[in-house]
Write a structure and sequence with these properties.
By secondary structure, the chain is mainly α. The chain has 13 helices and two strands. InterPro entries: Homeodomain-like_sf (IPR009057), HTH_TetR (IPR001647).
Length: about 250
């Protein structure tokens, strides 16, 4: 039920999570059984219970080690030249690109943040999950606050909250719809151009000194795609999760 305390424990915990992810790939989130993880990893159920209380704990941890909040800081560090406008659209565009490459991440995201699900996890995992969800909200809000401070955006506190919520809710709805593949194109067109128009519309309802354009987002998407293609975005370990979990807002990872 606890997170690993040293590198040896982290290695074992990661092995268990790797096997759980393979089971989800083969059987789906609903069908795989908790005890199967230990069998696949070649360890006892006691070892499994050392780190996870239930299937819900496992799924929460799988989501945590796949979150974009573990990758965005690395991307920003590699690109210190990004301006306020680029950083303002980064979290949304980055998540879109990760979802395109990893359908399992989107499945884990949708399941893990559902209150009917996460409330069944252990209290320790819930605390980490809550911290990580709020960290991602901070990744959206911090660039907006910085834009206001720099005079690039004129907005009240209420308007900042409205914009942050609009971006997050659009992101959540669009990624869920994209992955479900249920909607006819008459209702939903899952392409970048449509996404850029939606984001521009949301952003430019507010008083930016310079409009947020499709060109800004196209350039950012290309950089994100190149970064993910290189593999630097694959930061999936208990150590990384623990380190990110110590942070409460994106100011600490700029």
């Amino acid at each position: 039920m606890r997170c690993p305390k040293d590198s040896c424990e982290a290695l074992r915990c990661n092995q268990l999570l790797d096997e759980a992810e393979k089971l989800i790939d083969n059987q789906g989130v609903v069908s795989f059984r908790f005890a199967q993880i230990a069998k696949q990893a070649g360890c006892s159920t006691n070892t499994l219970y050392k780190y996870f209380e239930s299937k819900e704990d496992v799924l929460v941890c799988l989501f945590l080690r796949n979150t974009t909040s573990t990758r965005i800081p690395v991307f920003i560090k590699e690109n210190p030249q990004f301006n306020i406008y680029q950083l303002a659209v980064l979290p949304v565009l980055f998540t879109f690109e990760v979802v395109k490459r990893s359908p399992i991440f989107n499945i884990l995201r949708v399941v893990s943040i559902n209150s009917m699900f996460w409330q069944l996890a252990s209290s320790e995992k819930i605390d980490v999950l809550r911290n990580r969800v709020n960290l991602f909200w901070s990744c959206i809000r911090q660039p907006i606050d910085n834009a206001v401070s720099a005079g690039e955006l004129e907005a009240t506190e209420m308007e900042v909250k409205e914009l942050v919520q609009s971006l997050y809710f659009f992101l959540a709805g669009a990624t869920s719809s994209y992955e479900s593949r249920l909607m006819d194109e008459f209702y939903f067109t899952p392409d970048d151009e449509t996404g850029y128009r939606h984001i521009s519309s949301l952003m430019n309802r507010y008083r930016w000194k310079t409009p947020v354009t499709k060109e800004i987002m196209q350039e950012m998407t290309q950089k994100i795609s190149a970064f993910l293609d290189k593999g630097e975005g694959k930061v999936r370990s208990c150590e990384t999760c623990a380190e990110i979990g110590k942070r409460h807002h994106c100011r600490e990872i700029d």
